[in-house]
Amino acid sequence: MASRVSEEGLKTISITEVKDGKYNEFMKHISKVQMEYFKIESIKFNIETYMSGVDAMSLVGMKMPE
Prior knowledge:
Helix content is about 35%, strand content about 15%.
């Protein structure tokens, strides 16, 4: 986890590797956790999903260079 302070407040980034077939379960869990923070009016959040280079390249029929 990484955090930084900006003019907008505190920004935190968490990187998690999700097991195959568990993505939907993970997103339900993380959304439920974030909704607890949403109850505090001044807190905003968004969830961004990224893939590893290997996974992303395979989606377009390519592979990572060695």
